[in-house]
Amino acid sequence: MKNKLFEKYFVFSPYFWLVLFFFIPLAIIFKISISVSEWGMPPYQDIFLFDNGFKINTTFENYVYIFSDYYYIGSFVNSLILALISTFFCLLIGFPLAFYIATSNIRLRNILLVLVVIPFWSSFLLRVYAWKIILQNNGILNVILLNLGITSEPLQLLYNQYAVIMGIVYTYLPLMILPLYGYLNKFDLNLIEASKDLGLNRIKTFFKVILPLSVPGIVAGSLLVFIPVVGEFIIPEMLGGSDRLYYGKILWEEFFVNRNWPGASALAFSGIIILVLPIVIFQILYSRWSEKNEI
Amino acid sequence: MDNNFLVIENISKSFGDNKVLENINLNISKSEFFGLLGSSGSGKTTLLRILGGFEKPDTGRVILDGMDITNLEPFDRPLNYMFQSYALFPHLNVFNNLAFGIKENFTQKEIEINVRNIAELLSIEHLLNRRIKQLSGGEQQRVALGRCLIKKPKLLLLDEPLAALDKKLRSKTQLELTTLQKKLKITFVFVTHDQEEAMSLSDRMAIMKNGLILECSSPEEIYENPKSLYTANFIGIANIIEIYKKDENFYSDDLGINFKLNKELKNTKTNILLRPEKIKIQSINNLKTSSFNSFSGEILEKSYLGSFTRYEIKIKSMIISVLDQNFNSNSNYNFPKGEKVICSWESESIKVLED
Q1: Which residue, among A198, A204, A207, A209, would best test binding to B if mutated, counting the most B CBs under 10 Å from its CB?
Q2: Strand duo B257-259 + B249-252: pairing
Q3: Where residue B243 falls among pLDDT bands split at 50, 70, 90?
Q4: CATH 3.40.50.300 is held by the domain B6-234
Q5: What is the least distance, in Å, from the CA of A177 to any CA of chain B?
Q6: Under an 8 A CB cutoff, do A191 and B89 touch?
């Protein structure tokens, strides 16, 4: 009986986790986002006032403010585009790598998997900083290019959106490779041989057999890259320039520079809703589809 | 008959230091049902995969219907390969699995007609809209077969075609497969580790061991007149007895009896094969022991197998297997355990293994 009770709670532990670390913080952010801002600490008024009898003190001004200024919406759109492009490149590089790892022999496979994971053992900040050193005006890359005579003066490689994309693809690539590998690992290689045997060349086999059967791995890897990249703050901050503003950076400025907590919370809450709702809907539709197609 | 339809010439293959195939030569005729029989590690599957184009041989050539296909990719070869796991596409239904190989070059209408025809041939018309996971093992096997046959290949390669089926279904499918092959007149080459399967399906078969072909002949020939000790033991039950020349006859120390052979021997000492069903078993009261080709022994084990009974008979230091057909429905006809019996055989039944 005691064991059963334990099992019951154990099964629900992910939900406790979700409530404790997702829904409660989300509720707090929502609460701040509908508060009236003021100068002080904390920089917003309580939503329940008891001075002259009970009074609810909420406002949607913060949302109106966020959505009426393209500065905020634009940064969110920039982040979405950044996430899309980064996810695309992660997939483009990650898929062949994951497929190669999954189909190589066990010894090579383990070595390659360790190589994929090794960057996680060092500080993320340090790794991004290293790219700064490589890409800066008197950095390794420019020195090589100058000495080879390919360019006559240093190229501006740093502080633009391309450096940001590169940094993100570099950082998030393992998050694409690992779920893809996990899925491709179970891939029956006879299916590829069967397809070739039935007359399809490599390219057609890829599009008719490998790709459709990899959809679950592609979806998992893409979501794992896409979602955090939308809110990514450090990489655009370190490698990016003033040519593009991203959501994570605006959020940070709104909280810590402008000390507009209600506005920042409204921005954060809107971002989560805009991001999470379509993904939840997508997941529901996708699981129905994959159930129907038995993939 | 043109026995140069499929020519396998000096094929060798190594994986690292491991020699998997050594100088394989085979000629297979058009419309032949050819079996490659061997235990695991004999190289039979590697040979089949070389025919399919999934492995490249280190040396040698494969010629199919006059065309050298050794260096062709699988998708350029006019043959098809049926995988042991069937390798059906899980994301497609039965119709699209069957149509997979012909979608490229056919119109929608032609595809429809072809799929219907092949489904009818294999009696799977009712399954066309099913998904692969909804099929039984036997149904999957038919779809895998249909997916290959729809391409009208010159040669069909089958890797353990019946291994995944249960025993009852297997014998039924065996019969269907031979009927189908004779009807379509497509050359079939298949791989199996099951000697019964090899014997019942093959027109001719090759026995493989350690990357070599030991023997290649009809199942009857291989069973009745095996050339090597390995084949004799590998196919069916075998009593192997060592004999040597003594005076006019041959003598076995193990049995303590004389053998009379109806042919001359090159060596003075050799192994002979005596198949268990060739031995006649009689009650000791009926007969005197003859001076050769017969012995008296004691029944050590007995297993009743329905159509026949298998006895293990002990004589001196050896145990001889005997299969006795149950002619009589009277169960008393069987000899009880521990009974003394007389075993005898014809001189022609003794097969000399000279290797």
Answers
A1: A198
A2: antiparallel
A3: confident
A4: yes
A5: 23
A6: yes
